[in-house]
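A quick aside before the break. I want you to see a complete sequence-to-structure record at least once, exactly as it would be stored in a machine-readable document. Don't worry about memorizing anything.
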Amino acid sequence: MKTYSKMIAVVVMAFASTPVFAQTISSVGSPNVTKGATSVEGRVGFSLDDDGSSQDERFRSRVHIDYGFTDMYAARLIIEGDKRKGDSFEYEGLTFENRFDLLDADEIGFDFGMRGSYTLKDGAQKPDNLTIGFYELFPLDKWEIRANQFLSHEIGEDSESGLNASVRAQATYAIADNHRLGLETFNNFGNLRTQDGFESQGHSFGPVLKGKLGNGVAYETGYLVGISDGAADHNMKFFMSKSF
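That is the input. The structure line, written in tokens, reads:
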């Protein structure tokens, strides 16, 4: 079973390593759900872009409130804020997310889950978004490989037809008790109906450090460098969470 899971992990990583786009408040998520667990998480991110695009000197924030109703289902509320260069900080949108833990590693060699979410954008931030995501986690001794795939569709005011696709992947190694160091990649392919080549897409890659500090407190920090014109040149993030 371990050999089987390693083979799948290699295939997923090969696909996901197509260069990337990264939102500075995004992560490569886990499919795992814990019944009765409540968590609150704060995220901040900052990007710089030498091309002077909307990503230059852009600060983003996000707050998560998550609760596991069963061992298979959890719900999450996400509140986002955004500050662009020269503008004031403003509320961006509200997301309601359903998380499903469907298959476990002791059954098929890796953990698998799905998420479905709806994002209600504020005012000028329209359109709204409906997203479905697939989540895999491969535990390989001290290594852990995660992969996520997303399809989203714009809804309502200012929306465009067509599906938007993105892929994320992360490989980390246990460097100490409860601390992991590794690399991750974010790939945003944009609207699949209006593809215009690699450089117009968002592709980023860089290191990530994450771990647990005790008493239910966890952290994650990382840096991503843009490797396509459609991605910000520099992306920095820092997350803190508390589980109850």
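Two observations worth writing down. The helical segments are 2-16, 105-108. Residues 119 and 156 are 11 Å apart (CA to CA). We'll return to this after the break.
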